[in-house]
Every structure is written in C-alpha cells, then in structure tokens.
Amino acid sequence: MILIPVLKNNRDITELKEKLEEEKIELEKEIDSFEKCRNEENAGNIVEEALDVIQVAVGVVDIILENYPKETREKFKEHLPKLHNRGWRFKKILSIEES
C-alpha cells in the first residue's frame, strides 16, 4: 500500500508554490543523474524527489479544498474523463481515502 499523508502546516499557497519549484528542480537533477548512470541509488533518488513533488501538490490541493470544497470536488470528478478524452490509457488508479 502506498500512503501519501495530508500534512498539517501553516503554509500559504505562495509558500507552497516556492516549495514546489524547489522540489521540481531537485527532481530534474535526479532525472539528469539517472540518465547519465542508471543504477538503484539514482532510481531511489528519483522516487524520493518525485514523492516530495507529490507531497507539495497534495498540500496545494488541500489548501484549495479547505477554501473551495465544491469546486475542488468537481475538478476531481472531471479529471479522469479529461485524461481519457485526451487519449491517455490508465495503468493503475490510486484511490484517495478521506477521513
């Protein structure tokens, strides 16, 4: 099972934007390293940085969900059909459990 927590934090959307940019750059560096030398360590580093990007994105969605729940839920409902209509095929679907 893959668990991605929704963190309690006091960051605003601007701070998360800056954090996302930082994490994106780190992920790009790890992908560059992996392209030069494909090994387990570099692969693990990519996963670590990708999870950091996902974590920040979850924080962004959480902030919007708190303030605009109706709109956020509508976008979640629209997302899969949008991808399907663009020709994407699904390998897996990760489920999010709200508590």
In short:
By secondary structure, the protein is mainly alpha-helical. It is 70% helix and 0% strand. It is built from three helices and no strands.
What does this protein look like?
The protein is mainly alpha-helical and 99 residues long. It has one domain. It has helices at residues 13-36, 40-67, 69-85. Helix 1 (13-36) runs antiparallel to helix 2 and helix 2 (40-67) crosses helix 3. The protein is globular, with a radius of gyration of 16 Å.
Distance between the termini: 17 Å
The outline comes out as globular
| Beta-strand residue percentage | under 5%
Task: Give the radius of gyration.
Answer: 16 Å
* Helical coverage, percent range: 55-70%
Oligomer: single chain
- Give the count of helical stretches: 3
Secondary-structure class: mainly alpha
Question: How would you characterize the largest beta sheet?
Answer: none
* Low-confidence region ranges: none
H-E order: HHH
- State the domain count: 1
Overall mean pLDDT stands at 95
What is the number of E strands? 0
